[in-house]
Amino acid sequence: MWRFKICLYFALPDTKGTSYTLFPAMTMGSELFFAGVALLWAFSTPVQSQSATSQSSRGSGGSTQDTQTRGYWIDPSTGLMWAGKDNGTDINWHKAMRYCHDLRLGGHDDWRLANIGELQGIFDATAKAPGLNPRSRWHDAEPMKFHVKGNLFLTGNQWSSTTGYDDRGRPSGYAWRFDFNEGRQFDGDELGFSTNKRALCVRRAGS
User: Fold this and answer.
1) What rounded mean pLDDT belongs to the chain?
2) Yes or no: is domain 62-204 CATH 3.10.100?
């Protein structure tokens, strides 16, 4: 069996895998050399900290569990506090306005129906928040994904507080709504319509 001697430095990483320490050069036989190579390989895989792992899994929008446990989500980009879910059933525009006005959530009583710009602001084409497609005459209730930030739990299209006006500046009797499946605004819904319409409430955090 052939033998040899070799002189080298060992560079071992710390537990985070972000820095390395050089050990002094040493002369060793072939058996010890190969044992050192094995030790170096074992320590060469960076260890990700628990906090980093947790942060990665949560993402910028917060986890579904966090949002639904608290009952609300605060958008860090706007400071708006959103109810964690919509009202969950068909509702016309007038009742949607009342629903948010009467909402008591998170120790606050100044909730309101979101306007169309605010709804547009929480649309995210890459988001896949779990929601529900309610039972209808065509199908049973079934899970559905919505392209909405914050993992808000939605069950339909969302009324906005933004209403339309005719060519003389008078209320037209129509309001805007937002579809978080298609990411589109619609302005042709009569205030008395309720099918697949929901109320999603918002307030200014810190006020």
Assistant:
1) 80
2) yes
